[in-house]
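[scheduler] slot 2 assigned
[scheduler] job type: sequence-to-structure, two independent chains
[scheduler] chain ordering preserved from manifest
[runner] begin chain α
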Amino acid sequence: MSNSDSSGGGAAAAAAAAGQRRAPRPRPPSALRTLLNLPYFAAVVFLMYWSMPFCAALGYIPPWQLWGARSDIFYWCKFFVDAFRIDARVIPRPIEGQQQGQPKAGAAANPAAGAPLHRPPGRPVIYLANHRSWADFFLDAYLTAGRAQMLSRMAVLYAFPWFMLPITTARGCVVFKRGAIADKDRFNAWLDSKIAASPAPGLVVYPEGHRSSAAHSLPLKRGMLHYAYGRKVPVQVVMSAGKERVLSERRRRAAWGGIVATAYAAPVDPKDFDTSDGFMAAVQKSWDAAWEVAAPYALPENRAALEALPKNPVGPEMFVWPPHLQAAQTAFSLASTVAMLATLWAWSRAALWLTSASVLVPLRPLLAALALVWVMASFVACRDDGSAEDGSKAAAVVRERKDA
């Protein structure tokens, strides 16, 4: 069967699936939906903040394992993927002759067409990812098989110390102070030492510089591209659609059961270019192409094509960690568990104190029941069914660009 026949058959199948699929449920008004979403959003942020105790208790990161190969970064991320029931899919490469900006409805028939994650043995890779929300911290590390450290601002360490401290200590994250770098050679040498000190050979970088839920890419910053060219480190674009549907801190929204579709572009190796300008132009072209391929899957009307994509087969890359890092991970797991239990105890005491007024004591059972109903309703309402209300505000702009 030709590519065009496969694409046409896939489009017909997607259209049939769209007709058979249950229509999205009606959405409450925006203000009411925000109020309804708050308990689940708070639960997601709480789980991110205290993820280490849960990972240790559920065996994702076994604190008792002090020897042998392990993949703490991947399984820390897999905990979130499982907890939020995220369905990871892979976007195949565009079919020849297919227009940009059109979802590949027939992609499921040809899963081998997707570019795999670049994993050259014994060689580092810089993965360039789009920066959409806080969910990037665990999704992009998961989508790169736990084989890469995340390059993150120091502010994230201050905001989420109980998972950033152990991740950084275990050489899973490199934190730096944001701002102008006075001595780039010194910074690059420092980054060399951080990469060399970690068993994970890769690095996840957000070249746009900061989070954005816009329908267009921000201009790529070239600092890390200069670093990649100077060190002859290959670069691969890892572009995902749907990350802000999992968690959007700016809109105070979160959802479970969503689909995250990822396009793995072909790697760009600086060894193939005589000049840095040629290398950066190739990276920009790869980035733009991956953006155009992934963006349409954020549109609610393309839900059937999204559901037709093949499952993402990404799996963990195992490393043997030095004993002192494994011991540090165990210590942080125990310390964070104690800190979480102490925090929950303090919150419970504060709740009792706030309701200790004589007029409120008889109402405690009623208040507790109302709070429980609110939380349960929030968890039910926050299932991602692909409706426009769950999507980012960028979807309308993507649609306008596609129709133009």
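[runner] end chain α
[runner] begin chain β
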Amino acid sequence: MFIFSIKAQNQDTPYYQLINLKIQDENFFIEHSHSEEHYIKRALLKAKIDKYEDAIKDCDTAIKINSKNADYYFARAFLYEKLERYKEAIKDYKQGIKLNPTEAEAYNNKGAVNKKLGNNKKAIRINPNYAEAYNNSGIAEDDAKKYTQAIKDYDKALNLNPNYNVVYYNRAMTYLNLGLFSDAMADYNRAIKFNPDDPEAYNNRGFLKTKMKQYSEAIEDYNKAIELKPEYAVAYNNRGWARLNLGDYNNAIDDFRMAIILNPNKPLYKNNLKQAQEKLPKK
């Protein structure tokens, strides 16, 4: 079995060191002024290095100081969303929108969190040229298995912004759900043309080629994904599956073992390894 990838943020140690230095600066200002702005600045810095719980505490303090600033609620909603605490995120988006009902992006973000089309549509009504809202509406339609409508939303987003790379990526997956493999391939090709250093795009194009039984071509895409992201467990697993289908059992076993090393908590990788081992000739 092969699977789609999930995007993950790489940790860059020098970058983290720089952010920590900036946090220390904000610590100084907070110690001497207790200003709400510095709490929010520190929260956003902490979010950049994935310290979401600590960042939420800073937002809590800023809101206690000034409960009338919509942006503080939007910031905390974003942090809750990162932690998958969606009910709390929606609550903060609602409060922020109550304070600032003309902020189209807030309706859009709220729609992305709760997957309800109404919020994305409201963002579009406020700003009919809001490409991101059409993209999120397309995601919601796809989740609801309304694939034809999802394509229409993605088309609108691309009409507004032809360079909106992630929409090609999302539309390709919807075309795949519709069984329109040629259209999906064309969109993955476009996504890679816009961003040739995106390992997820190569992995997902490889996924499509695997479904089309183009195993050798799929392996080339998985190779590129792994070159760009050497710790990419999903791509190792998917390359192993393609190799398994080509009868290259030993290399498939090596790939599944590497996937397990990188992510030992994924039962799928262990099941695939077992299948490959069972294919080896009996001694």
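[runner] end chain β
[qc] chain β: Residues 129 and 160 are 7 Å apart (CA to CA).
[scheduler] slot 2 released
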